[in-house]
Amino acid sequence: MLIKTLKNRLVCACLILIGLYAVVSVGGTIFFQYEPNTQDLLQANTGPGVAHWLGTDYLGRDLLARIVYGIRISLTIAFFATLINITVGFLVGSVSGLLGGIVDRLLVGVLDIFWCVPPFLIVVMLTVALEPGIKNIFIALGLVLWIPTARMIRGEVRVIRNSPFIKFARLNGAGSFKIMARHILPNCIPVLLTTAAFSIPDAIMAEAFLSIVGLGVQAPNASLGVLISDGLQSFRIYPWQWFFPVLTLTMLVLCFNILGDALHEAYSSKAKGLLEHD
Amino acid sequence: MIDVADLSVSIRKDKAVIPLLKNVSFRLGPGETLGIIGESGSGKSLVTYALLGLLNHTAGLEGSIAVCGCCNLLKAGRKEISQLRRQKIGYIPQNPQGSLTPTRKIKAQMQEVIAVKTGLRWKEAANYAAELLVKVGFSEPGRILRMFPHQLSGGMCQRIAVAMAIAGKPEVVLADEPTSSLDLLSKTEIMTLLGKAQKEYNFAMVLVTHDLGFALKYCNTLAVLYSGRLVEMGDTGELCFYPRHPYSKSLFGCFFNETQERQSALFHGEPPVFNNRVPGCRYFACCRERITACEVQEPVLVRIGTGQVACWLYDGGENR
After folding, report:
1. Could you give the C-alpha distances from B110 to B101, B166, B224, B286, in angstroms and in order?
2. DSSP letter string over chain A?
3. Does A219 or A156 have the greater pLDDT score?
4. Would you list the domain boundaries of chain B?
5. pLDDT category, A43, cuts 50, 70, 90?
6. Is B157 exposed, middle or buried (0-12, 13-18, 19+ CB in 10 A)?
7. What is the mean pLDDT of chain A?
């Protein structure tokens, strides 16, 4: 089913684009002659041209170099935030679903309390408390994003726990640990993958939002959010300073969303296939 | 091999005790097969669950079950029960496709079961798995081992379940409607396989089924359950041709397609719900041969000939 998904042209294009973004942002300065933070005031606010492909900003920094650098920071934040998200979410969700009883009730209580507070409020509070900076942004994001993941994994574990194949495995003499490791948790991985694929664009958007309101990555570092926020100030006179970062962000988020959708579709149609078989 | 005495199962709900199964007793030796028949919800599967020790912590249990040397399964600890399941009991499930883990290949699943049941190493277990698959009628075991459950048909999955059940050379096999979700050919295949395996390993088998044809062909003894009560038990040949209890009569009457009159009796009513306390016989509302005693007091099992029947018509061992 996964192979069939990969054969889909749109998904393929998204994967290639994401790969390209990743390679270019990691390679960064190898590909381009300009440093993202080098100022050249004589060249300030030049439009797209031969020397600066995408133009320069108000301090004469090359916009292309800054966007590439911004993608690197945005992707790093998204990656680590998602890593924290799925690790914590998976652990809490599976412990809660597997153990049940008082542990489950306690954890669900904590989840419900967090669920009631707007997530961005927590992120903003955390970034203020931890001081703005790359590391603290992904910590704050990771700590908020895991809540829906944990709920989803918990539900999945509870459904799987009561399914006939678990009963059959138990009746064939498998111990609790083996049942958990070999029968329950592997069946949660599709849900986890889909969640991760949707969590990356969420994290990118959240980082952009934080940077736009001034709580994100601090100058002179550039993330896509910082670039959009800078471009916004001279948006009417030098529209390219705003347009290119927004285009990049949109493409990136769109690619991850299409990928997440495709994964979701692949696994849900697999599940549907199983049901039809019954 | 299996000795069940006065097994009763009940659950508690809102402080009231609801009996689900009452006073079921039977005895089964090596190589023998007991068929449990009755309509859906009559408690057939509950008997197998009790025999597997699944109800020990969830329901109120009375009586005693002795299986393969374990003198009372109902009082056994978790360890003893899981030891028993690993070494002595094979279980064949109702829904073969749902009973195999969808994300793992057949090979890994069989290896795991074999390793647990026989103590073989992982690699040896793979060879033994292929051997078992040949035994249950697959001509290309290597190909099947590489497949996922959803790539196999229901009949194939059930054959794999049979292979898993006989992997540990069990002394007892519990088959909980093994043919209910299969087509006719697969049904016959599975039952033939089970019959063959029984001859080879000489295990005692409890066969819960709706399929009276297979019950007649493969069982030495039949037990008829109705609404959680054992209403009749006896030698298969005698019970099917000379049923005594009115419920057994209509069941077999329907099976042998007897007169219209008898068939219409079948749809006379529904069994009482479990939490509805009925003072008399639970078949009273549907029974065509009821007498006044039936409404007042519940009949007890009495021995008649080689069998037993719980019906006031046969009180005192003679037909009134």
Report:
1. 11, 11, 35, 47
2. -HHHHHHSHHHHHHHHHHHHHHHHHHHGGGT-SS-TT---GGGTTPPS-SSSTT-B-TT--BHHHHHHHHHHHHHHHHHHHHHHHHHHHHHHHHHHHHH-HHHHHHHHHHHHHHHHS-HHHHHHHHHHHH-SSHHHHHHHHHHHHHHHHHHHHHHHHHHHHTSHHHHHHHHTT--HHHIIIIIIGGGGHHHHHHHHHHHHHHHHHHHHHHHHTTSSSPTTS--HHHHHHHHHHTTTT-THHHHHHHHHHHHHHHHHHHHHHHHHHHHHHHHHHHHHH-
3. A156
4. 2-219, 224-317
5. confident
6. buried
7. 85
What pLDDT, in 10s, does the model give residues A199-217? 999 888 888 888 888 888 8
Instruction: Find out whether A5 and A265 touch, Cβ atoms under 8 Å.
Output: yes
Residue A265: predicted pLDDT: 82
| Sole residue written with tokens 């004589």 | A42
Question: Given this model, what pLDDT does residue B266 score?
Answer: 54
Rounded to an integer, what distance in angstroms lies between the CA atom of residue B110 and that of residue A168?
12
Q: Residue A31: phi, psi to the nearest 5?
A: -80, -30
Of the given ranges (A17-21, B100-104, B261-265, B272-276), which has the lowest mean pLDDT?
Answer: B261-265
Average pLDDT over residues A104-127: 89
Q: Which of B85, B98, B104 lies nearest to residue A163, judging by beta carbons? A: B98
CA–CA separation, A252 vs A245, rounded Å?
Answer: 11
Closest CA to A77 of A19, A139, A22: A139
Q: How far apart are CA A123 and CA A144, in angstroms?
A: 7
pLDDT of B36 over the 90 cut: yes
Determine the Cα–Cα distance for residues A244 and A250; give it in Å rounded to an integer: 10
Q: Is CATH 3.10.180.10 what the domain over B2-219 is classified as, yes or no?
A: no
B181 contacts B211 by C-beta, under 8 angstroms: no
pLDDT tens, position by position, A52-92: 778 888 888 888 888 888 888 888 888 999 999 999 999 99
User: Do residues A126 and A136 make contact, with C-beta atoms less than 8 angstroms apart?
Assistant: yes
Other Cβ atoms within 10 Å of B128 Cβ, number = 18
Domain boundaries, chain A: 2-40+53-277
Cβ-based contacts of B101 with chain A (< 8 Å): 165, 169, 182-183, 186-187
CA angle A206, A209, A214 (to 5 degrees): 125
Cβ separation A189–B104 shorter than 8 A: no
Q: CA-to-CA distance for A141 and A145, rounded, in angstroms? A: 6
Contact B22/B14 with Cβ under 8 angstroms?
A: no
pLDDT in tens, B296-319: 888 888 888 888 898 888 875 444
- The answer for B 52-71 residues in CB contact with A (under 8 A) is 52, 54
The answer to whether the CB atoms of B116 and A183 lie below 8 A apart is no
pLDDT digits (tens, 9 = 90+) for B132-184: 999 998 999 999 999 999 899 999 999 999 999 999 999 999 999 999 888 88
**Residues of chain A contacting residue B100, judged by C-beta atoms under 8 Å apart:** 165, 168
Stretch A172-185: mean pLDDT: 86
What CATH architecture is A2-40+53-277? Orthogonal Bundle (1.10)
